Amino acid sequence: MSIVDILSNERVAVSLPGEEGHVRNKEQALRRLSQLLAQPEAPAERIYEVLEARERLQSTGVGGGVAVPHGAVEELTRQVGAFLVCREPIGFDAIDGEPVKIFFALVGPKGAPAQHLKILARVSRLLRNAGFRAELGEADSGEMVYQMIAQRDGAS
Length: 156
Description:
Elements: E1 12-15, H1 26-37, H2 44-57, E2 61-63, E3 66-67, E4 70-72, E5 80-90, E6 100-108, H3 113-127, H4 130-137, H5 142-155
Helix pairs in contact: 1-2
C-alpha cells in the first residue's frame, strides 16, 4: 500500500505565518491534523482524543523536524492519512529536542496493526531524506505537498 492510497489532496495542508488558523503549538497541530483526518464515522474531536492520548504516552516527534502522530480509532474501517507542513516550526517534544515542521498523521481501525506499521515504515523511508524534507518545508500549498509526495512515493 502506498502513501497516496490513504491520502488525498484534501487531507494535506500548509500552515503559513499570518494566515487564519496558523498552527503555533502542539495542541493546534493535533487539532488541525484531526480536522484533516475527520471521517463521517469518526469526527475530528474523536480523532483528536486518540492522537492526544498517544502523545501523552510519548511524543511522536521522531527527529529531523518530523512528527508522526498516529493511533487506532474503533469506528474506522480503513487507514486514513494526513500531512501538515508548518512553515514556522513548532515545539513538539521531539526525541532530538528540535522543533517540528512536517507532520504525517495516521489513524486506522484497531484490528489492523500490521497495515498501520507498514504505512508508518513507508512514511519513515520517504521522510528520511533531508533534501526532501527541506523541499516539503518550503511548499506554499497543500496541493504542492501532495504532488511532491505522490511523485516521490510513486518512485519508491
